[in-house]
Amino acid sequence: MSDASAIARAPGAPERAVLALVALPEDAVDPADAMDELASLVEAAGAEVAGSLLQNRKLPDRATWLGAGRVDDLRALADERRATVVVCGADLTPAQGVNLEKRLGRRVVDRSQLIMDLFAVRARTHQARLQVELAQLQYSLPRLKRMWTHLDRMKGGIGMRGPGETQLELDRREIEVKISDRRRRIAVIEQAHALRREGRAGRFTVGLIGYTNAGKSSLFNELTRQRVEAENRVFTTLDTKTSPWRVAPGCNVLLSDTVGFVRNLPHHLIASFHATLQEALEADLLLHVVDGARPDSHLLIAAVEAVLVEVGAGDRPRRLVVNKIDAVADRALCARFGSDALLVSARTGEGLDELAAFVAARARVADVTLTLRIPHADGAALAAVRARADVLRAESDDQATLVEARLPPDLAGRLRCYSVSQ
Ligand SMILES: Nc1nc2c(ncn2[C@@H]2O[C@H](COP(=O)(O)OP(=O)(O)OP(=O)(O)O)[C@@H](O)[C@H]2O)c(=O)[nH]1
Ligand SMILES: [Mg+2]
Fold this sequence. Notes:
Radius of gyration: 26 Å
Oligomer: single chain
Bound molecules: guanosine-5'-triphosphate, magnesium ion
């Protein structure tokens, strides 16, 4: 994977992109917001936005996505702005891609390619790299006919990084071999993950999920006192990190931070990021983090819910956490999130105690209250109680410590041999 290629540059200059969007009557998202989001994805991929064109249509054109007249306008705009690439804000069929490239005389990148490309640039871990590669290879398979011989010189730009770059030379068989190789390597990683999760059996786990840039990593850092990268840009996090979070005295849960979602996340990406997402999605409780300062937050919430359903996590217990409350001028507006929503700010710390108390209550639902007589000889058992149980009463004699405590179920099971409860 040619991660180092970054965005294709004429030496020194970022790639110049013209954006195109077809607004359909059924679109929930305001076209201006959709265009802004497309621009932020393009900029995050390292290109410069040189212009944009929007067309309202009842349906996309089967052959060229945009209507014929608008394709000519787009060509003129791209020529005038000296754009090296045209980025379309939706997925194109292989035929639409070929036709548009011919008519526009430059590379055309669709939304899936753009997002996969962005993931390719951001991927830091071996696992994330393999997962993006797999998605890109699968995407390229039905598009092999799209031989951009006329554009051969322009390798290495958005949508061309990673295996896409070699798409022109590889035949289907080679790609299929690569796909099965990546699948095999990802399966090995999935096994390691499953083992790690097994090791945590019995611990209450909490997953932070939400739209990209909602502030998940910032919250994770505040709550677990860790340092994962948090940035004002999309898709900063592409892997899953899990750390203990002390939600109450004697109550530690495991908190996971993971990759953010975006609307219409490419299916291939969702499928290949299965291993990464699994750790967060299998949590006992999901905290759905939304940027409360964004006026379109209800659309972001809906987009995240749609991805959850797609990955089979639509029925996981979850709670809405409205972040960036410090940036909301009129708090009354937060009523739209419903009375169950937890209002927080990772920046100022507001609401984080309430969030911890909420999670502690959930984690403790299954707790068992026991009175244990733990012999001094079993120091490990006493240490485990001190670390993971809520100690209500403790007294020692010369042989043992008598403790009354609320214990998580796995620990209660292990220590039941010391129980003196009725
Ligand atoms: N005002 C304000 N900004 C915040 C708050 N929490 C996070 N941010 C900012 O929001 C931006 C995104 O934060 P991240 O924590 O990287 O967001 P994320 O959800 O992990 O994003 P991805 O990993 O890209 O999905 C950063 O610029 C943060 O400084 C908050 O409570 N208030
Ligand atoms: Mg993050």
